């Protein structure tokens, strides 16, 4: 005689109900990222004894989201002008040069390229 097998209602990561999962704290209701944690970390690294008000933090966060939106829109336009369907690093660099003034664009591209290079090299496949 076969025993009845009760199936467990499993969702990913062990939650019983998908509704019970919490939303990610890094995404606000409007879909924009929240960089408050990173802004505080950089501030503490540069000036350890200073703090920043929540209003100022919101202003800087909005500025970062605004610049990100502008750069991504301009890079998308450049990609379309070149009749391509893939966004390349060159498109992003050209967008940064178009939107940011002189030395700021130069430093942004240099630091961005270095960060991407370090990221790619940190995930090199292991040969063992």
> If you average the pLDDT, what whole number results?
82
* Amino- and carboxy-terminal Cα gap: 51 Å
- Count of alpha and pi helical runs: 4
Please give the number of β-strands.
0
Shape: extended
Pfam families: Histone
InterPro entries: H2A/H2B/H3, Histone-fold, Histone_H2B
Protein name: Histone H2B subacrosomal variant-like
Family: Belongs to the histone H2B family.
Description:
This protein is mostly helical and 128 residues long. It is 55% helix and 0% strand. The protein is built from four helices and no strands. It has helices at residues 36-46, 54-81, 89-99, 102-122. Helix 2 crosses helix 3. The N and C termini lie far apart (51 Å). Residues 20-98 form the Core Histone H2A/H2B/H3 domain. Belongs to the histone H2B family. InterPro entries: H2A/H2B/H3, Histone-fold, Histone_H2B. Residues 1-23 are annotated as: Disordered. Residues 14-23 have a biased composition (Polar residues).
Give a quick precis of the structure:
The protein is mainly alpha-helical and 128 residues long.
Layout of secondary structure:
Blueprint: H1 36-46, H2 54-81, H3 89-99, H4 102-122
List the defining traits of the structure above.
4 helices, 128 residues, mainly alpha
């Amino acid at each position: 005689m076969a025993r009845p097998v009760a199936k467990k209602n499993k969702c990913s990561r062990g939650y019983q109900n998908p509704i019970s999962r919490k939303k990610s704290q890094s995404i606000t209701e409007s879909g924009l990222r929240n960089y408050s944690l990173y802004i505080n970390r950089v501030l503490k690294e540069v000036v350890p004894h200073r703090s920043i008000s929540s209003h100022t933090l919101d202003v800087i966060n909005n500025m970062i989201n605004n610049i990100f939106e502008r750069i991504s829109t301009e890079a998308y336009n450049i990609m379309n002008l070149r009749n391509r369907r893939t966004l390349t690093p060159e498109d992003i660099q050209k967008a940064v040069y178009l939107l940011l003034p002189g030395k700021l664009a130069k430093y942004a591209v240099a630091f961005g390229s270095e960060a991407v290079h370090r990221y790619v090299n940190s995930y090199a496949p292991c040969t063992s």
